């Protein structure tokens, strides 16, 4: 079990987690953790022993050079880091890992134990899946929870999915059983442009997460990167008439399913984001 020593007392910490692999289409969800680690200058807290959970013939370690002379082995594992967003009165624990190859129950139990030691009561699991959503429209983000009170207060949906699941679904269930607040956010990535990165989906997850945890999310250059990504996909689609026609069909289907006017909830959420950002700018 991980030993956490010399850790400062955390203030109302929230866990934000993502895993590479089956749950991470376009690396959109793991991209959120990478982005926040850099933007918030997160510091390493702990990591799980990879020997317990990974088959190194399936998920192989990598060799890196240090100082041009030293060769280091980087083992695939799951790591915790601590972020203290400026102007925010709560801490954020970031969890980034690779979907384990074995012993998932023990894996979840160890993560829950770390959460208890850190005082985490609320968890946000991030995922991304391939879907038939067109790249030219806003990225759909589905937010779910198992607690009806969370569903009502955060404008989420009750979890009703049945079928195969990955470590995101298993860990979310384990959090609920352990008595933690467990929220899950999933971005839809166009299946015809699945290769990473997908900054547009990463940006959509960040914006939705801002509503859930009530913390202004640093967006950095993601807006520009998302526009450049969409423009690049436009150019590729224009070179293939069948792909262009398929995208047009998806757009028409999507537009027909949407209300022509913005909903009151969407307008209210955007206004709340504006107020949070304004307050943060004023404090800084």
TrEMBL record:
Coiled coil: none annotated. This is Filament polymerization regulator ParJ. InterPro entries: Proteasome_assmbl_chaperone_2 (IPR019151), PSMG2_sf (IPR038389), Rv2714-like (IPR008492). The gene is parJ. It comes from the Bacteria.
